[in-house]
Every structure is written in structure tokens, then in C-alpha cells.
């Protein structure tokens, strides 16, 4: 009693495969794939209007929380870690699902289209509001019926797992070595021209131009979600 299950995942990892492929490559539609709930007979019809691998009945039982962050911060962080572990060509559409907020926006809009009852609406959290250590997390606790006094803002470091690979180390080391919320990661006061100059220095002119264009293309979806944040 008094406990809840939290599941954290990137939206595109639960996207219906044919829809994900179409969004990147185009082409004709493929038969959809749906994970059936336990006890559902294979071949049984289930209502499916959402764009994920799950039936509506299952995904509607969630209280969705969408965590967003300014694209310049999000995609620089991803590219820095990913390219530090392997070669990344930003022009290759195979990477496209890492550098967009379109899936989060589509999922958010789907939840709204279902006419959620009061207390079950989708929630949007902007990372900057967490980094500022403002009231957002406490407000979230109230919405979820959780004890805001149990929120931790300081913690111990975590030892890296034995045998952690290069990619895992690139993505996870800052988290494992952290002891508190790092407010320096906020996008408050971001100057995109300064960021672009940093990208040119760190990644080269071509990658910097590509990264800048990806950020620009993502701003509409980001700003839409941000306009609905908690």
C-alpha cells in the first residue's frame, strides 16, 4: 500500500515498429504489431488507436509523464556521448528517432484525444524546472498522491558496473558520479550561437551545422509540449 510503479523509457522504444520505420524512411504501411495483454487469446481483436505496440486498454491505464528538455541541450548531450563511443553520421536517418520530440508530442496528443478524466491527464515536466529545484517536483508528488517529503535532492555515487562497455560509460558516468541535481545543465540563458560555436570546435563544422538544423527542426514540438508543462 502507498506505493506506485514507475516505468521510465524513451517514447520511441515502445513505438509500433512499422510506424517508426515509416516516420524515418517513408514507404507503404505495414501490418501493425501489438503486444497482447496477459490472458488475451492470440488473434483476438483489441482496440488499437494509439501509435505504440500496446493496446489502448493497457496504455490508457497509465498516468503518462513526459519529461522534456531544450533540444540544444538534449541532442548535444546525446551526440557527445554517442559519437564518443562509435561513429555517428547525423545525415543517416537511422539516428532520426534520437533527435526529435515528434513521438512524445504524438503520444501526448493521443492521451488528450481520449478525453481523460480529471486526475488522469498527461503531465509534461520541463527539465529546467527540476534543475532549478523549484516547486515542480513537489507539485508532481501532490498530483500523484505521493509524499513530497520523501523526495531526495542529494544521494551517494554509484559504482560503475563491472564490464560496462564504452557506450554505457559515455552515457551513464555523469549519473553514476553525481551526488545532487546539477543546475549547470539548465538551458536558462542559453545562447544558441554560443552553443553552435562550441559544437564547431568540438565536433567540426559539418556536424555542428547538422546538429543546429536538427535542433531548429525540433523546436516546434518542444515549444508545444513546453506550453503544456506543469
From TrEMBL:
SUPFAM superfamilies with a match to the protein in the record: P-loop containing nucleoside triphosphate hydrolases
Highest taxon, organism lineage: Eukaryota
The protein's name: Sulfotransferase domain-containing protein
UniProt source species: Fusarium avenaceum
